[in-house]
Amino acid sequence: MAIISTLISYFAPVFLILSPFTSYTDQILSIHRTRTSAGFSLDIPLIMLTASILKIFYWPGARYDFSLLIQAFLMVGVQMTLLKVALDNRPAWRGERPFVETEEGRPLDFWRWKAQRPYVYQLALLLHAEGPRYPQASLTDRYMLHRYWEYLLFLTFGLLILHTLLQPDGSSLYTKFIGYLGLTIEAALALPQLQANYRARSCKGFRVSVLANWLFGDMMKMGYFFASEPGRVPWAFKICGMFQACCDAGLGLQYWMYGEGEALGDLDIRLS
Q1: For residue 93, is pLDDT > 50?
Q2: How is residue 136 annotated by DSSP?
Q3: Which of 61, 86, 155, 194 has its CA 20 to 30 A from that of 269?
Q4: CA-to-CA distance for 211 and 107, rounded, in angstroms?
Q5: Residue 169: its pLDDT value, please?
Q6: Phi-psi bin for 201: left (phi > 0), alpha (psi -120 to 50), beta?
Q7: Helix axes 208-227, 235-258, angle to 10 degrees
């Protein structure tokens, strides 16, 4: 048992640091290769970006394990890349099929903002440069483009201002709040994909490699969290990690039940 604990303490931090790449590189490449992100929920980068930014600001007060902080920084970069590729290849934006008008709404259509062209080309047009394949973007397109990034900027700078004003320590209510909030959001990572798979009765578009890395990562995290010396990993990580492992197991069950068959009707394009 001591040998297993030692191995976990050495190898788990390395796995955690590399997990953003091992978990999402295949998904990014698959979307880029197939030129469509239908079946992939944009809520995944939303959740991971929000949670990772909150975890970064949680560290100055909690001073949790440094490998988890490095993982959070790397996750931000990987998820921004995934968001870019997914937005560039949304079906409606490439002229394949329109969005379904009857999809479930959200307050202010949060994180379901729609434009007609991928934002990378719109950004070039905003700088008065012609996009390589797309005509001039409309003002509405430009506005929709910014909303994804405005959310991330407001979240980051809002937390930075709060940290500057409050200067929280590990015992402050604010530190505990953003820690549990960020980890709770991350624990809910699988929920949008669970819902999407259930509605479509298919896991098409969601890479089995991502699922495999999530499940293996859950095992590594649980072993590392509970094998670490007391105080090194806060209980917030442990509680939220257990919930996330249960959700990921549910995704595994869905993959076994549904496989990668065709989605029911047009439900695979309702993920905006």
Answers
A1: no
A2: P
A3: 155
A4: 30
A5: 80
A6: left
A7: 150
pLDDT higher for 152 or 10? 152
- Output the six-digit token pair for 228: 């670490």
Phi first, then psi, for residue 42 (nearest 5°) are -65, -10
Beta strand residue intervals within 56-146, DSSP E = none
The answer to whether the Cα torsion of 46, 41, 84, 74 is positive or negative is positive
Among candidate residues 71, 84, 148, the one with its CA nearest the CA of residue 114: 148
Q: How far apart are CA 240 and CA 54, in angstroms?
A: 14
pLDDT in tens, 9-60: 778 888 889 999 988 998 899 998 988 887 787 888 989 999 999 999 999 8
Mean pLDDT for the chain overall: 77
Sign of CA dihedral 73, 78, 80, 83: negative
Instruction: Identify the residue whose tokens are 């729609």.
Output: 114
pTM here is 0.73
CA dihedral 77, 241, 8, 72 (to 10 degrees): 20
Average pLDDT over residues 167-172: 79
Number of Cβ within 10 Å of residue 10's Cβ equals 9
Q: So what's the pLDDT on residue 81?
A: 94
Task: Check residue 107 and report its DSSP letter.
Answer: G
User: What confidence category does residue 132 fall into, taking pLDDT thresholds of 50, 70 and 90?
Assistant: very low
7's torsion region: left (phi>0), alpha (psi -120 to 50) or beta? alpha
Residue 92 tokens read as: 């409606």
Task: Tell me the torsion sign for CA atoms 157, 151, 207, 25.
Answer: negative
In the block, tokens 């973007």 appear at: 137
